[in-house]
């Protein structure tokens, strides 16, 4: 996980209690803030989703993975390994009951995703470098 993501998660953890029920609007803002979704086109699509979802719509475990899977399938940077991993997660989830997520559960999932990315893309460690 890069330094910027760690700092942002630390700030969020300081202002959002772990037991806070998560809404779709907050979910999407956090995914962008902590760097899970960086592609400007995908961020634009996520923001459009927030304008469509009714205010206060709860984030669910299945919904989170469907959102990430959908964004990944739209991303030109996603690898076959990424697709296989999210497809496997979605197939496992279909046998589990769906649950509303709290901020604490959600941020733990996000940290795992960021750590997984860092293990498989060590060049991404440290501050995110923008290419010109």
Describe the protein's architecture and organization.
This protein is mainly α. The chain has a domain of 87 residues. The chain is 62% helix and 0% strand. It has six helices and no strands. Helix 2 runs antiparallel to helix 3 and helix 4 packs antiparallel against helix 5. The chain is globular, with a radius of gyration of 15 Å.
Poorly predicted runs of 5 or more residues: 124-132
User: Main sheet, how many strands, which sense, barrel?
Assistant: none
- N-to-C series of helices and strands: HHHHHH
Number of E-type strands? 0
Give the integer mean of the pLDDT values. 85
The number of helical runs is: 6
Q: Considering DSSP H and I runs of 4 or more, what fraction of the residues is helical?
A: 55-70%
Radius of gyration: 15 Å
First-residue to last-residue Cα separation = 23 Å
Tell me the overall shape: globular
Beta fraction: under 5%
The SS-based structural class is: mainly alpha
Topology:
Layout: H1 3-15, H2 24-33, H3 40-52, H4 61-74, H5 80-93, H6 103-120
Helix pairs in contact: 2-3, 4-5
Gist of the model:
The chain is mainly alpha-helical. The chain has helices at residues 3-15, 24-33, 40-52, 61-74, 80-93, 103-120. The chain has a domain at 3-64 and 99-123.
